[in-house]
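job 3f2a | input accepted
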Amino acid sequence: MARSNLWRIALVVPEAHAPVFADAVGDHADAVSTFELEEGGNWLVEATIHGEPDRPRLTGRVAVLAQALGLDDPELIIEELPPIDWVSHSYEGFPPIQAGRFFVHGSHHEGTVPGGSIPLLVDAATAFGTGEHGSTKGCLLALDRLSRHVRLPRRERGRGAALDMGCGSGILALAVAKRWGVPVVAVDIDPEAVRVTRVNARINQLQGRIRAEGGDGYNTSIVGKHKPYRLITANILARPLARMAPQLARHLKKGGYAVLAGLLSRQERHVIQAHRAQGLRLVARIPMGEWTTLIVRR
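job 3f2a | predicted structure (298 res):
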């Protein structure tokens, strides 16, 4: 087998020191990133580099930095990565997904769509949300459940029927627009997410129903222009969800529903309490492994 000549550098350090260790290994790497392993605890610092790194120099730099910070030397992993056919690997990593009546598939899917399913064509891209993640799948299951007994009027005096807050790839906006046939406002702070959502709306022939804009959450002008909403989806993270609960309550129509995700099961109590304080009540919870999706109603 041919060698990839791509190497991985990894170490685990306390959260407060992750940035300085990232800088230390970043001088040797083509790309470096940090990931939270446990809330308020250790972080993984991970880097990739083309060509074998200077192991003695890198080991020495990490040891000196650890000593200066009063830490034990972290275990330093330096390993060559196996060669991968990235196109095939991407397709294999994104098989079609059935979530209730929603059938999420990429453009490489050559099979048929199961009868009675609602197809969503979403390719793996640079924005979050292709359906395989527990939080995204939980949201799709929540929308499928709601669609069985909740009606959304297609037009209501210029008001928006639905809002997808933190839209990522736009997959939830696509699901709402297809299932209910209503206009959806999709907002994300990341311009790339907005671009991908617009692309996905076009390839799913929903560009006339989905309005994707960039902005600062509920402060985005288009969000306020079309409030209140009968349905809000927010697949973000636990802390932002809790922080934004007052704004969500102000933008959600009385009797309306919100689907909340991006939270670990151990974080759900905090998110539920934040929304209960705003007069919203929990109507359902959908666990997906370590992730939980919540449905609340105003």
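job 3f2a | Residues 6-80 form a domain with the Alpha-Beta Plaits fold (CATH 3.30.70.120).
job 3f2a | closed
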